[in-house]
Design a protein that fits this description.
By secondary structure, this protein is α/β, with parallel strands linked by helices. The protein has 16 helices and 15 strands. The protein has a domain of 265 residues: TIM Barrel, CATH 3.20.20. β8, α10 and β9 form a beta-alpha-beta unit. α3 runs antiparallel to α5. It is elongated. InterPro entries: DUF7033 (IPR054297). This is DUF7033 domain-containing protein.
Length: 427
């Protein structure tokens, strides 16, 4: 397809690269009217210039701007029978794709949560009831249906479904291998609360009579064997309020990480504290490299602390190439409107970074129980819907569990059913 525009812009190229190239399709772009008119293949005028008898799409100005601005008029419109974002009273599916994919709204966070995060409830997708579907993929299919039906056929034939189970290891063990002062502190708290069950559990674990309640690593090993693309993101930060893993420097802890690293890929789970400290981040990167004997190039932020564009730039500067934080803690669904891996675009510098890849995730264990307060049965319904959405529109089905939730510790008793159900749905 040849697309005519009055002006070739960086935002436009980023958007079309995703719409076409990321989906296995090709396109050409021109601002040469003569070349466009004589071209004999499929073509589209993405401009307000009137080419007689040639298909056209009236553009919003968004893809031809260079700086982010507060968009005062965002509405739900309709384009070719599909709900579509209307920007400044213009319903333009390409501009809509860019707005959601680039996370435009996250550059204007009004009501961050207690951890400084942009929340699902503040997103335009939540407002218009689009969060639980791949709205961007719907716009793309509708675009091809109108302007290039044969491209739509190719697009549908090239759809892929790639499951990627992922685990965040925030607390490797509940009692095992903890430093003495932490054991005494925890024991003191349990004594004051008269939590006899936990006191006895700690004694049995530390004496080797009982398995640690957070130990689900046999299950994780089995997932690795069945899904080689599985990712583990390990927390090796120093102890702090929101960073409570056992010491990274414990040789037994390092041995466990090394053993799992032999099975598959282990990435970095940067600590909460490292989110605002370059020094801490550098130390943690060095630690994971020392333990695994190789550099980590993939990461997911602890607490899903994603601050655009700063977080991505910090990781790129440290040599990272892929991030798995694109999703919400407070709701499940598709934060970027798609399950497809894609490039990062920085609105502040008006620049695309094709070598830094964003892998969206569809749900996190804690979202279902702790935020949405769903039952096991309700969660299974959600999982089935999400998996089917990715099967229908293609992409990566990435999801997050933790070793302690998989081990069914405490309130998570019975929840392994949801994890197992997820794996069944991936078949």
């Amino acid at each position: 397809m040849l697309i005519y525009v009055d002006e070739i812009s960086i935002r436009l190229i980023y958007t079309l690269d995703f719409v076409f190239k990321e989906h296995g399709l090709e396109y050409q772009l021109t601002n040469d009217k003569k070349r466009f008119v004589v071209f004999e293949g499929i073509k589209l005028s993405y401009s307000n210039f009137d080419f007689e008898k040639i298909p056209f799409l009236a553009p919003a100005t968004l893809l031809f701007e260079e700086r982010p601005r507060v968009l005062k008029k965002l509405d739900k419109g309709n384009w070719n029978g599909v709900d579509c974002l209307t920007i400044d009273s213009i319903t333009d599916p390409l501009a809509a794709v860019f707005y959601v994919l680039s996370r435009y709204e996250e550059y204007f966070v009004k009501f961050p949560d207690e951890h400084g995060r942009f929340t699902a409830k503040e997103s335009i997708q939540s407002k218009f009831d689009w969060l639980h579907i791949q709205i961007v993929e719907r716009w793309i299919e509708s675009f091809f249906q109108v302007y290039a039906p044969n491209y739509l056929e190719i697009l549908q034939s090239k759809k892929t479904f790639q499951p990627i189970p992922t685990f965040d290891i925030d607390n490797t063990f509940a009692h095992k291998w903890k430093e003495g002062w932490r054991t005494w502190l925890s024991a003191g708290k349990d004594f004051l609360k008269r939590n006899k069950e936990r006191i006895e559990e700690r004694k049995q674990v530390q004496s080797g009579q009982k398995k640690d309640p957070f130990d689900s690593f046999d299950d994780i090993r089995e997932v690795y064997r069945n899904f080689p693309q599985t990712r583990i993101f390990w927390h090796v930060g120093d102890y702090a309020k929101y960073d409570t893993n056992i010491s990274w420097n414990d040789s037994r802890h390092q041995g466990l990480i090394q053993e799992l690293n032999e099975l598959g890929y282990i990435g970095l789970h940067p600590s909460y504290a490292s989110n605002t400290s370059d020094d801490k981040l550098t130390k943690e990167i060095d630690r994971i490299k020392k333990i695994t004997s190789k550099s980590a190039h993939e990461s997911r932020q602890h607490f899903l602390k994603l601050n655009l564009p700063k977080t991505y730039h910090r990781m790129m500067e440290q040599g990272f190439e892929k991030d798995y934080t694109m999703g919400y803690a407070d709701d499940y669904g598709f934060r970027a409107g798609t399950a497809h891996e894609h490039a990062f675009f920085d609105l502040l510098t008006n620049q695309a970074f094709p070598d830094y890849r964003i892998v969206p995730f569809a749900y996190m264990d804690g979202t279902l129980l702790e935020y949405k307060k769903l039952s096991i049965a309700q969660s299974q319904v959600v999982v089935k819907q999400l998996v089917q959405e990715v099967k229908d529109y293609g992409g990566v089905f990435c999801f997050i569990w933790h070793n302690e939730t998989l081990a069914e510790a405490g309130k998570w008793k019975g929840w392994k059913q949801v994890f197992d159900y997820t794996l069944e749905q991936l078949k």
